[in-house]
Each structure stands twice: as C-alpha cells, then as structure tokens.
Amino acid sequence: DAGVTQSPTHLIKTRGQQVTLRCSPKSGHDTVSWYQQALGQGPQFIFQYYEEEERQRGNFPDRFSGHQFPNYSSELNVNALLLGDSALYLCASSSTGVDTQYFGPGTRLTVL
Amino acid sequence: GNSVTQMEGPVTLSEEAFLTINCTYTATGYPSLFWYVQYPGEGLQLLLKATKADDKGSNKGFEATYRKETTSFHLEKGSVQVSDSAVYFCALGGNNRLAFGKGNQVVVIP
Asked: What chain A residue is nearest to B103 in terms of C-alpha separation?
C-alpha cells in the first residue's frame, strides 16, 4: 500500500518564477492538505482540498494556489517566488471527517 | 485560535535515559492531539495520537496522555535509543487542519 508521494524531491528556482509541486494521496484518502515548513520551524498550514475544491485556507497570500484532480491527487502552485518561499513543502492526506493526516516526504524548494 | 506550545530548546540525553517533551495547547472544543516525528531529510511520521480527554496514545515505547485539566499532551519514553534521535512535533487537530508546535530536537548520545 503506497503512502503519500510527492514530486519533485528538490527544486531550485529564482525570484519571480513560478513553481508547481505535486502530491498523490495515500490509497483510500480523499482529502489533501499542504503545509510549508521553514528551516527549524514547525509546519504551517497552507490549505486543504476536498472534492476538488479548497475547503480551508491558512494565512498565505493569493500567490499560493492549488488544485485537486478527480483521482484525489493535488498540485500546489506558487507564483512570483520570493526568497522567503524557500522551505520544505509537505503534503498530507486523510479521509474526510478524520483528523489524522499522513505526510509525504516533502519537496525542498530553494529560491535564489 | 488553536495553538500548541512546546518547551524551548533541543534535548540531549544518554542512551537508556528517560525522555520527556512538554506540550501544552490552547483550543476551543475538543481537538485531537498528535505527536509526529521527523528524521533528518524526511517528512513527518505519525508517532501517536489521542482523540479525547484521558486517552493515552502509545507507540514504539512512547506514550502521551491527553490531559484536559492541564491542557497538556506531554511525550514520554522510559529508555531512549540512539535511533530515537529526531525532531518531535506536537500537533492539534481541528477545523480541517493541524496546528504544530515549533518542535524539539532530541539527540541521544551512546
């Protein structure tokens, strides 16, 4: 049973560029959440997708957007990258109505 | 809003020592509580959870009890191993999101 997978593993971009990160949820899960983890900090909630719609959003600007596909996989898009967007981006999946979330290995984004 | 506070600073201890990491929370309602562990260069792994007051979560020798009266969920292990070296995060679930503490790095010395 495959767990949560994310791609790519690492990514290097320059300021002003745009990036797309991808996530496939654990088998049987229909809800995907995205978190940003800055170095030495705890993860911060970006948003959650369920039934192909954004259900909850944390305190992140509109430069951060997402999408969920009919197969429950998800993308995180970040436009106009800033140096401060450098972080580990974590995807987590869960079943609707259940608090427990399972995390993928993350994508390490470096903005130069 | 919901928030989690973890004790400041890394924890360094010798193999077979007793480990305690403090976690307190602020929340409305009756949230679920979690401990996640992060090994170097990896994502977060669920270590244990508790869904209501007085529940005890346990896994791999780690334990934590959901204490509503003290709003705490402290993590304990009786005898740590070098392989327990990692960063540990306390988290609170509710409103379709997890709120994390800042984490504590645990270093176990042989």
From this structure: A42
